[in-house]
Amino acid sequence: MSVNENKVIARRFIQVWGPGNLGLVDELAAPDITVIYPVLREPLRGAAAFKQLLAHFHAACPDVEISADEQIAEGDSVVTRWRVNGTHRGELLGISPTGRSLAWTGITIHRLVGGRVVEERGEEDALGLMRQIGVPTSSEETKLLVRRLEQAVNTRRLDVLDELVSPDFVRHCQATPQFDVRSLEQFKEFLRQDATVFPDNTTSFTHVLAEGDLAAAWGTYEATQAGQMGPFPPSGKKVRVDLGAILRVESGKIAELWITWDNMAVLTQLGHLPAVPAAAA
Fold it and tell me: In terms of pTM, does the model score above 0.90?
């Protein structure tokens, strides 16, 4: 089989994880196929055993949808990066059904001989999946989420926010009452608009503390005003202001944010307000 033919087979074969596709195992897998995933603890051997595993997964996520994002092939091996969406309707990873929407990604290597899959070896974020199901988040994991959010915002990688922020994310901020952020997409739009005013903005958290699914962050926001900010024209001046934030994590993603800073300090540094005289000694 050619490399391209192997790619086609591997792309079809990942659909065995979708409901109603058990027949693909008989069509495309070798009878003695070996399946290796960390969550299985030990290799699964044989098409019959694989079909039992798939049936259990289909019962847990009966509406699952799988898509292949990228493929790389060489010789008898095909590497596929994939993503899965579904609803937790049955026992999964030992956890009773919650009815929650799930989304996760992974990478699988298929080895083929004579047009049949003889080995499937995969890696996926099982811990992230369990967090979505509702396993409590540890303090260290909460801190890591906050740090990853900081990095994604500073590098303008808004696509990464899909992995970090809940779809129904809510942002609370008295300093920006004109922005009502009640979803991930609205949060992305807020960040885009902020970048048009302050294209070089950087948020640096100097302190991050966490207790369970709550985190507190303290840091600075630095930027140069290059765009219109409400009624205030571009000043070309730099601003550096302290900020404080509380973040709440739910199902492994940031679900809520409370953030505040001193707008008077911002407007003064940008030259839109006169400096406040120092208090007399």
Answer: no
